[in-house]
Design brief:
Length: 460
Amino acid sequence: MPILIRNGTIVTACDTYVADVLCEGEVIVAIGRQLPASDHTQVIDATGKYVFPGFIDPHVHIYLPFMGTFAKDTYETASRAALLGGTTTIIEMCCPSRNEDPLMALDLWMSQAAGISACDYTFHMAVSRFDDTTESALRQIVDRGIASFKVFLAYKDFFGVNDSELFKTLQLAKELGVIVTAHCENETLVAELQAKLLAEGKTEPRWHEPSRPIQVETSGVKHLMTFAELTGAHVYVVHTSCHQAVEAAALARRRGVDVWVETVIPYLVLDDTYAQRLDFEGAKFVMSPPIRNRVHQEHLWNAIQTDEIHTVATDHAPFDFHGQKEMGLNDFTKIPNGIPTIQHRVDLLYSYGVRIGRIDLCKMVDCASTQAAKLFGLFPRKGTIAVGSDADIVIYDPNYPHHISAATHAMATDYSAFEGWPLEGRSDTVLVRGKVQVQDGQFVGTLGHGQFLRRQPTHF
Ligand SMILES: [Zn+2]
């Protein structure tokens, strides 16, 4: 049945205007004023609401064996939570460890999503080892529609690559036109600082940040910039947390390095005092790089508005407080890293960004949808409202006060890092390729409607 979204305020990365949107099959077929509806057209009145392109989260973890446990969500819980928060496409990190076969890993990660996901999905392929076997596997993986890699400069014994492997990965990526996303922290410094702090009896969650200070992250970014400059590869710094790391990337950009910068929602709204909470409460806020001093927040928001930060993702990595975060009760280095956020990125960006004037509406669409589509080979199919684009649409009520709570969220974790936080708006209706998956803020859709998105390399 065709769907006509009437009289909403359409917001793209560059325009805001009132018009109707007609969806037929899986795509948008017309945009205009007072479009006619036939008898069998479903009409949705969007008067007073925003009509956004489906949001894209370019950095999530769902299936994740990590630090001796598994992340809590499945594609059933995570994709439902994503849609309730207006995110219609997710890009998950496929993260095999060093001794796993990349092709088998991709099959394993795909099998977690296929037939289950309620939203569309694709993967960044982590390169956790580079030799002749993995090189040929990576070529096949790109042929299968995975047009981006991930490298870890941290977690060396588990996911991380050494410098020689990093160089070869970037060379291959350059040859294939694949963008390389990178976790930038200096692993050696992290290990030394962790050992020093633990030896001093500093075991609580509050010591996580001092074990991975801004210098450690900035050093990682500069290291990647050198390798990107020498190989000509296109690189994307994931989860940038602080002023200095953004500056390191911006400086490299000015001398011609093809670098793109992501931040994630926790860094924009939380600060280091959360991880300093007593009685192990701080463990709820442990992720890497760590959440920084409040002074960095304003810089990060400004960097979004001035295009030094291009995307806002989540780095959704869901672990329960009880039983999982508690693995680090006596040693902060054993707290599984991650904050569950897949559901609340858009609402937090809207309430704590747009509503208080830190970014404008077009910038919100740009950093939470359009840029990710362009960088990762999904544009213009995804990331905008245009004739011919997929009918991934969020009808957003900007005046719907509600609160975040673990008691009501759709993620599988037993806590929320934003418990009790007030929000100003919500995603009322969410379409994925022309199908209503969320209505009146409730999931009414079909699990398994989500499709794997094949992507072509775009960066030559
Ligand atoms: Zn991550």
